[in-house]
User: Which sequence fits this backbone?
């Protein structure tokens, strides 16, 4: 039996095929915001969610293989017995911004970027681990996926894909960077051992037995973002994936690590030892709609979309800079905050909803432009993934903003599907034939040139306002 699990920000999803039909099971868990800079989760709650899903895999044969996908940039502090002594800090936690600024002043940003292809930012491990060392008694550090693997297999291991998104792995040597470890005050034994994404790790005998199998294995897989490229079969420079879920990203696959030589606008992570993903991500995707729903008392996300439809392009003059959780790519300004510009007494919640959606799409356009420039690419096939694909209106809006056609595939969860493909590949199966058979096109959204012309002008307004407010957020 082959299955795959995706450990996401808000939930875990299990994918498997049984009796000729694909099944997707989901288990949600909590996110807490104890302060404006803090975003925490309970690693035990996530472990429990993953295990409860694994126990729902039906019996088929004697051996189970589970491909893994997991959210990037999470870190939990452990004691010597590998038990948590801190909450899980996910990608949106920004409490280490002072540590980041200390590192920047002492070493400069390119010192880290040129080694790891990860910009210096509070979401990455160098500053997060420094913060944890100052605020806890943690003796070991790992991602949520490494924690799950350790508890269910006994092995403390991380694969190269997720490790490449920590900001502590050298993207050229494919090993933990000794200088950065020293700067963070971390010894090798405090971090997981590194392994290929195709590594199979045997689950404990008692775990396999409880799952109903004689033997059970994890295939380590990779980070959720890059697994979408695998699952969408966007594995060359002419293809790309665009994701809007809780956060958002734009990614293209290259055959080598590529960094920005003109600045620091993008990151570069691994799928495996031969495939590198150039991209950028935003902190504020669907999480903006989550905030709107709570603050403006919308009944649900569907109502936000329906309200947005009532407002014209440009939201009657409103511009929403959606930096509710700071900024990642392409400028990496974690102190930036959300701004609503142009508000009058005549505006309604429909205008705010429309401005929010447009603001998120402008953020994706920022990343799209950076990836095109740094990678010298112009992908003709863009595959949309993430929760926003459930709204044809929002996908069409993004197509009009980018001025590019966008494809939505038949795969419900491409990250988990990508992890499934990685599991197949680890077993020597025919991945090309599998993708040709299982991956279909649900719909292609084609941009409206007239609307794209309007959005190009509005995008310039957005960029003008963004730059004007930088000094406000970074004044001392």
Assistant:
């Amino acid at each position: 039996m082959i299955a795959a699990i995706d450990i996401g920000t808000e939930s875990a999803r299990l994918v498997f095929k049984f009796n000729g039909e694909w099944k997707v099971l989901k288990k949600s868990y909590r996110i807490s915001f104890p302060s404006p800079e803090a975003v925490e989760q309970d690693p035990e709650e996530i472990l429990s969610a993953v295990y409860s899903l694994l126990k729902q895999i039906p019996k088929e044969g004697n051996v189970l293989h589970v491909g893994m996908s997991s959210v990037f940039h999470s870190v939990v502090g452990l004691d010597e017995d590998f038990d948590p002594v801190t909450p899980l800090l996910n990608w949106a936690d920004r409490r280490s911004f002072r540590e980041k600024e200390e590192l920047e002043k002492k070493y400069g940003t390119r010192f880290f970027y040129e080694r790891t292809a990860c910009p210096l930012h509070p979401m990455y491990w160098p500053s997060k681990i420094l913060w944890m060392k100052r605020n806890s008694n943690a003796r070991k550090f790992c991602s949520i996926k490494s924690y799950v693997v350790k508890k269910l297999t006994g092995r403390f291991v991380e694969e190269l894909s997720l490790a490449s998104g920590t900001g502590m792995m050298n993207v050229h040597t494919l090993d933990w960077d000794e200088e950065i470890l020293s700067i963070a005050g971390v010894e090798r034994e405090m971090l997981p051992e590194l392994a290929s994404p195709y590594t199979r790790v045997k689950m404990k005998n008692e775990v396999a037995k409880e799952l109903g199998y004689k033997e059970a294995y994890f295939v380590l897989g990779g980070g959720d973002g890059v697994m979408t490229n695998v699952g969408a079969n966007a594995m060359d420079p002419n293809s790309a994936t665009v994701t809007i879920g809780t956060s958002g990203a734009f990614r293209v696959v290259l055959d080598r690590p590529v960094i920005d030589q003109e600045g620091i606008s993008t990151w570069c992570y691994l799928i495996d030892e031969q495939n590198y993903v150039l991209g950028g991500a935003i902190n504020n995707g669907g999480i903006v709609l989550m905030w709107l729903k709570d603050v403006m008392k919308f009944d649900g996300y569907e109502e936000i979309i329906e309200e947005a439809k009532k407002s014209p392009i440009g939201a009657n003059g409103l511009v929403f800079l959606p930096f509710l959780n700071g900024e990642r790519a392409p400028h990496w300004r974690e102190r930036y905050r959300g701004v609503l510009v142009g508000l009058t007494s005549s505006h309604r919640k429909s205008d705010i909803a429309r401005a929010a959606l447009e603001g998120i799409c402008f953020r994706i356009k920022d990343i799209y432009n950076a990836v095109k420039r740094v990678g010298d690419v112009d992908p003709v096939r863009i595959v949309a993934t993430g929760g926003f694909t459930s709204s044809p209106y929002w996908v069409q809006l993004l197509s009009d903003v980018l001025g590019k056609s966008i494809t939505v595939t038949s795969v419900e969860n491409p990250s988990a599907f990508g992890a499934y493909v990685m599991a197949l590949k680890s077993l020597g199966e025919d991945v090309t034939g599998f993708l040709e058979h299982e991956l279909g096109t649900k719909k292609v959204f084609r941009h409206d040139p007239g609307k794209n012309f309007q959005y190009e002008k509005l995008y310039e307004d957005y960029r003008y306002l963004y730059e004007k407010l930088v000094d406000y957020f970074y004044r001392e």
In short: The chain has two domains: 2-225, 233-410+446-476. The first strand starts at residue 2 and ends at 7.
